[in-house]
Each structure stands twice: as structure tokens, then as C-alpha cells.
Amino acid sequence: MMIHVILWTTNAKMIGAIYLVLSLSYGIGGLLLSWLLRGELAALGEQVLFGDHQLYNVIVTSLR
User: Fold this and answer.
1) How far apart are CA 42 and CA 35, in angstroms?
2) What letter would DSSP give residue 43?
3) For residue 34, how many other CB atoms are within 10 A of its CB?
4) Is residue 18 a contact partner of residue 6, using CB atoms and an 8 Å limit?
5) pLDDT tens sequence across 27-38
């Protein structure tokens, strides 16, 4: 029931709060993914992703 109220609200304060929470969560998620890639590319060889090249490709394409 609460999800229905959040999705269909017209209250400007609630819409602003939802926007703030989503923007912060997406920003933190992007920051963590960029740190993960920077850790992987910091030196030669496999550091963080343990040689999983498919996961590396998925992360790179998700950041675009």
C-alpha cells in the first residue's frame, strides 16, 4: 500500500524527498563502481575483479 502512495503522489514535498533519495543512491552507486574500476586499472594484472573480464565489461557499459 505504501508503494502505491509513493508512486502516485502529487505532494511536492514527497516528490522532492523521493528525488533526493534516488539521486543520492544513484550517485553513491556510481561512485562505488568508479572506485571498483579504478582499483582494477591501478596496476597491471588482476586486482579487484579476479580476472572476471565479463564482469568488467558489464561494469564499464553500466557506467555510460
Assistant:
1) 10
2) S
3) 12
4) yes
5) 999 999 889 889
Instruction: Decide if 56 contacts 40 (C-beta within 8 A).
Output: yes
Percent of residues, the chain, with pLDDT higher than 70: 97
> Residue 11: which region, alpha, beta or left (left: phi > 0; alpha: psi -120 to 50)?
beta
- pTM comes to 0.73
Q: How far apart are CA 14 and CA 2, in angstroms?
A: 12
CA 25 from centroid of its chain's CA atoms: 7
Residue-by-residue DSSP string for 11-36: -HHHHHHHHHHHHHHHHHHHHHHHHH
